[in-house]
Specification:
Layout (H helix, E strand, L loop, with lengths): L2 H63 L12 H12 L7 E6 L11 H12 L6 E7 L2 E11 L6 H4 L7 H7 L12 E10 L1 H52 L15 H33 L1
Antiparallel strand pairs: 1-4, 2-3, 3-4
Helix pairs in contact: 1-2, 1-6, 6-7
Length: 299
């Protein structure tokens, strides 16, 4: 095995090990980054729905109810406004879904599942807890969620949720008298959730990682060829010249030209030393030839 092959094998093995180590580390970082990106998007959607709920209670409800037409306007319900907004957002972000899960909802659609009930109980148990981020199984699919508590902090909300008698008759005509009542001020009654399939951050991480890995492999290949060419030009070719000169000298060829010395690196010093050794060998050979000639002349 020649020196070029050995150097190529060493470089190739080094690059493969480096690619493996960097790849593992970068995948972990990419996965964390993708998860954070998805969480940030979910947080943004949550903040938008919170803003819509507040806007609905404080500005839309008074406008729609000022005529006292005895009609029930779902647009005055913050949960309705939030869901409608979230549905519009899903047109541009189809992987993100929004839900309001409640223990005792007015609309049966908002009934909390056992997993969602567990999240609500966490908010009830810890009044200082304002946000939860975690994962759960939804219809056999692992999902990432960000959840906020639904806490009754605005007395205006109790207009529809205190007692059936106080609630609008038009609302009771639609949803009945059994659900969504008995709520109290400052009580946690449910949770707002933005849910994302875990496949979304995984897919983002995979695409980013593959792009990074391909770029890294291309860089390593370029470095491999650059280093290979550099070693061949700066090391192997000068060494090959020295080898050929030594071979010529060993065969008694004293007429070959000296190696041209350029630069001040180690190979230049080695070439200069070889030239000095060559001159010394030539002088010794010439001296021996003269002595042999004299001996022949005497004999």
């Amino acid at each position: 095995m020649n020196l070029t092959t050995k150097i190529n094998l060493i470089l190739g093995a080094t690059f493969l090990v480096a690619l493996l180590l960097v790849g593992i580390n970068s995948y972990l970082l990419t996965e964390d980054s993708a998860l954070q990106q998805v969480t940030d998007q979910a947080e943004l959607i949550m903040q938008e729905t919170l803003a819509v709920r507040s806007y609905t209670v404080n500005e839309i409800r008074p406008l729609l109810n000022q005529d006292n037409d005895a009609k029930f306007h779902p647009q005055t319900i913050p949960a309705y406004a939030a869901m409608q907004t979230a549905n519009l957002l899903r047109q541009s972000r189809p992987n993100y879904s929004y839900k309001e899960a409640v223990f005792n909802p007015t609309n049966p659609r908002d009934q909390a599942t056992p997993a969602e009930e567990g999240i609500i109980r966490q908010f009830i148990a810890d009044p200082d807890l304002t946000k939860l981020i975690g994962s759960q199984e939804v219809n056999g699919i692992k999902t990432l969620y960000i959840a906020y508590p639904i806490r009754i902090i605005n007395p205006k909300c109790l207009a529809c949720h205190s007692t059936p008698v106080a609630a609008p008759a038009a609302m009771r005509a639609i949803y009945g008298d059994s659900g969504g009542f008995g709520w109290k001020l400052n009580e946690v009654v449910g949770t707002q959730m933005v849910v994302v399939p875990y496949t979304l951050p995984a897919e983002l991480a995979r695409k980013t990682f593959l792009s990074f890995l391909i770029s890294l492999a291309v860089i390593f290949l370029l470095l491999f060829f650059v280093i290979n060419i550099t070693i061949r030009k700066l090391v192997l070719k000068p060494v090959l010249r020295l080898t050929r000169m030594a071979d010529e000298l060993s065969k008694g060829n004293l007429n070959s030209a000296e190696i041209k010395v350029t630069g001040k690196d180690e190979l230049a010093e080695m070439s200069a030393a070889f030239n000095r050794m060559r001159r010394s060998v030539i002088k010794v050979v010439q001296l021996m030839r003269k002595m042999q000639a004299k001996l022949k002349a005497k004999s």
